Amino acid sequence: MGTCLVIASMLYALLTAHFALLILLPVFGYGFAWFGHFIIEKNKPATFKYPFFSLACDFIMFWDMLTGRLPKQTK
Which end of the chain is more exposed for a tag (fewer CB within 10 A), N or C? Predict the structure, then answer.
């Protein structure tokens, strides 16, 4: 959800020349993930130790989800 929001917000900011919105991209991108890690899973996300690797993996996983290559979770 966060990666989708980042892409949509970035496109909107660039197309409408509201460049101040670009400041919020990290909040949009990491807000959902950090909430899940800290509140639900009670652990520390890899973003703090490997920020660029974490960002790259977010976009790779998002692409895999869009193309149907992300395995479905079953319980």
Answer: C
- Joined tokens for residue 2: 């966060």
Q: 53, 46 in Cβ contact below 8 A? A: yes
3-state secondary structure of 50: coil
- Give residue for tokens 């703090």: 48
Give the chain's length.
75
* Structural domains of the chain, count: 1
**What's the pLDDT tens digit per position in 45-59?**
888 899 899 889 999
Q: What is the CA radius of gyration of the chain?
A: 14
* Domain around 17: 2-66
Contact indicator for 4, 62 with CB cutoff of 8 Å: yes
| 0.70 exceeded by pTM | yes
